[in-house]
Amino acid sequence: MAALVSGAYVVSSNRVGRSRGGTRFGGGGFAYTPRGRLLAVTATRQTLCKTLELDPTMAADAQRAYPCYVPELA
Fold first, then answer.
1. Is 34:3 a contact under the CB 8 Å cutoff?
2. Residue 69 confidence (pLDDT) above 80
3. d(CA 19, CA 11)
4. Whole-angstrom Cα distance, residue 72 to residue 70?
5. For the chain, what are the domain ranges?
6. Whole-prediction pTM value?
7. Which of 8, 10, 40, 54 has CA 20 to 30 A from 63's CA?
């Protein structure tokens, strides 16, 4: 939802597994396009980093198309 309403790519990274102190980290990472399409996911068995090519025109197009987008004032 954050990608859709902001018209921006959303990328999240999170640690997976347990720390030496026992803290459990639940996470994999993910990346979404400005239109809300899932680009990539990491998980416990796929923890290496991902390289993504991002298209800045996709974000601009998504911002113009979203019905409630309010442009930032410079």
1. yes
2. no
3. 23
4. 7
5. 2-48
6. 0.69
7. 40
Average pLDDT, the chain: 82
Residue carrying structure tokens 């790519």: 9
Say if residue 39's pLDDT is above 70: yes
Percentage of the chain modeled with pLDDT above 90: 19
Residue type, 28: G
Residue 16 CA: distances (Å) to CA of 21, 48, 60: 14, 11, 33
Contact 39, 31 (CB under 8 A): yes
* Residue-by-residue DSSP string for 10-52: EEE---EEE-TT-PEEE---EEE-TTS-EEEE-BTTB-S----
